[in-house]
Design a protein that fits this description.
CATH class: Alpha Beta
Largest sheet: 7 strands, mixed
CATH topology: Rossmann fold
Structural class: alpha/beta
Number of strands: 7
Number of helices: 7
Shape: globular
Radius of gyration: 17 Å
Strand content: 5-15%
Distance between the termini: 41 Å
Number of domains: 1
């Protein structure tokens, strides 16, 4: 199957991708993988800034991460619902961008848009592969949908953790592009406020926890419904002791 992209991050709002999987996206770019971001809304209902400011910040963050493109589905902020029309919109973008792997929100979230996005992506990905669906373009279904688990206390153990130790600074630089949203804040999105601890410190603490689970400095956790295949017993890593 022809894949135009290796990885597509599909998240509810501009800044969600940076917070939840920015390190893994930067790693994929460094490995030569074709990566893009699809924001479903423009964040127009946010308490801080405007959608025009967030659009400029989103483009700046995309340049920092080095992704090939950043797109927007123009669905309503605080109005995402897993309806047929919104599933069709997501499916249309998936047909056009043809990603091999899609990464999105965990199934639950503080913001209703986050949990709705998770379902929209899974159901939209299935719909995009139906030959008789009333959509432009050739049918396309991603190989895998992956859910980002960072900051979720209700999530199961991760299916895998990506070592982002060499890309933590780029992730934080991309996050810092959203000055209107996060300046002076100790919490954002799925990251609960941590008293007077700045948000970058919050992020480092969270990623250090997951990094320790795979014996590295920093890691980002992900979950898939299906089991992850190991190449062989002899090639397993992460020490038991």
């Amino acid at each position: 199957m022809n894949h135009a992209l290796d990885v597509l991050a599909v998240f509810a709002h501009p800044d969600d991708a940076e917070l939840l999987c920015g390190g893994a996206l930067a790693l994929s770019v460094a490995l030569g993988e074709r990566v893009a971001i699809l924001d479903l809304t423009r964040g127009e209902m946010g308490s801080r800034g405007t959608q025009e400011i967030r659009a400029r910040e989103a483009e700046a963050a995309a340049r920092v991460l080095g992704v090939e493109g950043r797109f927007n589905a123009d669905l309503p902020d605080a109005g995402l619902q897993n309806t047929l029309s919104q599933r069709m919109e997501v499916a249309g973008h998936l047909r056009r961008l043809r990603p091999r792997v899609v990464v999105t929100h965990w199934l639950e979230g503080r913001h209703p848009d986050h949990r709705e996005t998770a379902r929209l992506v899974v159901d939209g990905a299935f719909l995009a592969g139906l030959r008789k669906a009333d959509l432009a373009g050739e049918p396309h279904r991603p190989l895998k949908v992956v859910h980002a688990l960072s900051f979720r206390e209700d999530a199961p153990p991760p299916s895998f953790i990506v070592d982002v130790s060499d890309h933590i600074d780029r992730k934080l630089e991309a996050m810092a592009c959203f000055e209107s949203q996060w300046t002076g804040s100790s919490g954002a999105g799925e990251a609960f406020p941590g008293g007077d601890r700045p948000l970058p410190d919050q992020v480092r603490a969270q990623l250090a926890h997951y990094g320790s689970r795979i014996r590295v400095r920093y890691g980002e956790p992900f979950w898939t419904r299906e089991a992850i295949r190991a190449e062989s017993l002899g090639r397993l890593d992460v020490s038991t002791f």
